[in-house]
Amino acid sequence: MTRDPENEFRVELAIAINALELDPLTDKQIGQLVRHYALLRRWNKRVNLTRIIEPGEAAKLHYAESLFGAKFIAGARTALDIGTGAGFPAIPLAVARPEVQVTALEANQKKSLFLKEAKDELELDNVEIATERLEAFDWEGYDLLTSRALDRAEEILPTIIEKMRSDQRLMLYCARDLVAKLGRRSGWKIETHSIPDSDARLIAIFSSILYFDAATSTTAQ
Question: 17, exposed or middle or buried, with CB in 10 Å at 0-12, 13-18, 19+?
C-alpha cells in the first residue's frame, strides 16, 4: 500500500494535540498545518530545512510543541520569532492565534523563500517574513520575542535579555540546561512550563518583575 504522509501527519497531529491537552483546532487550522507540512516535505528534498520529517515525529516535535507555546502568549499583539528556520514556532503560533501579528525572522535566503511561499500557500494575513540577521533588525516594538533551536543561543540570548524593555517577554523553547546557563538577571522573572511527554524540553518565559506584577494585579481585579 502506498503511504500517504499528509494523512498520516493529520492523524498524528490530532494525537499529539490531545496528548499535550491543547485546545482543539478548527478544520481550517488543521488544514493550514497539513499544507505547511506538505510544503515542508517538498522543499526539504532540495533545501535542508529540517532532519525531522517523518509524520509522527514532525507532528509531535515541530507542530504540537510550537502550539503548546500558544497557551502562554495571552495579551501579545505582536510577536517576533528569532531564527525561525522552517517556521517553528512562528507558523503554528500564527495559525493558532490569528489575532497576533507574527514576524518570522530568518537570515537564510533559501529558508526565507520557503517561508514566503508558506505564508501565501496558507493565506496567513497575520504573518510577515523578515530576511535579516537579528543584529540588523529592530525588534524593540514587539510585545513577545520567541525562539526555538536558535544557532549560537548561549551567545545571543543574554544580549537579547539585557536589551529587552520591561514590558517585553521572551519565550524560549529549550532544555533546562540553557535556562540554567542564562541565569537569573536581577529584575527578571523566569517562568518554566515542562512540555508533556518530554523529559528535557520546556518553555521558559522571561518577563520583567514589573510586567509580571502588573499582569497579576490586573488579573486579580
Answer: buried
